[in-house]
Design goal:
Keywords: Developmental protein, Disulfide bond, Extracellular matrix, Secreted, Wnt signaling pathway. It comes from Mya arenaria (Soft-shell clam). InterPro entries: Wnt, Wnt_C. It is found in: Secreted, Extracellular space, Extracellular matrix. Ligand for members of the frizzled family of seven transmembrane receptors. The protein is mainly β. It has a single domain, classed as Endo-n-acetylneuraminidase fold (2-Layer Sandwich). Helix content is 5%, strand content 40%. The protein has one helix and two strands; from the N terminus they run αββ. The protein has a two-stranded antiparallel sheet with strand order 1-2. Strand 1 and strand 2 form a beta hairpin. The longest helix is centred in the middle third of the chain and has 4 residues. It is elongated, with a radius of gyration of 20 Å.
């Protein structure tokens, strides 16, 4: 005899099952994969915000044991599930 138990909804936060839900998670707006907003946001939609990001760039390896980088500024779009 087989017994089927339905899975809980991973889109919604359910502490009992250890699911944090997908609200507020970062996603990729133009991807059709698992990281894409269409699938990850469970049809709720998403928001996009732009921000300035400082990151290491133009890094150089100096022989034996040193890496020197410059700091570059760029504007990134961050997409999050509603």
């Amino acid at each position: 005899m087989c017994v089927f138990v339905s899975s809980h909804n991973f889109c919604k936060r359910r502490k009992r099952y250890g699911s944090l839900g997908t609200q507020g998670r970062q996603c990729v707006s133009d991807s059709m994969g698992l990281e894409g907003c269409t699938l990850m946001c469970c049809g709720r939609g998403y928001t996009q915000t732009q921000g300035t990001v400082l990151e290491n760039c133009k890094c150089q390896f100096i022989w034996c044991c040193q890496v020197i980088c410059k700091t570059c500024t760029s504007i990134k779009t961050i997409t999050r599930c509603l």
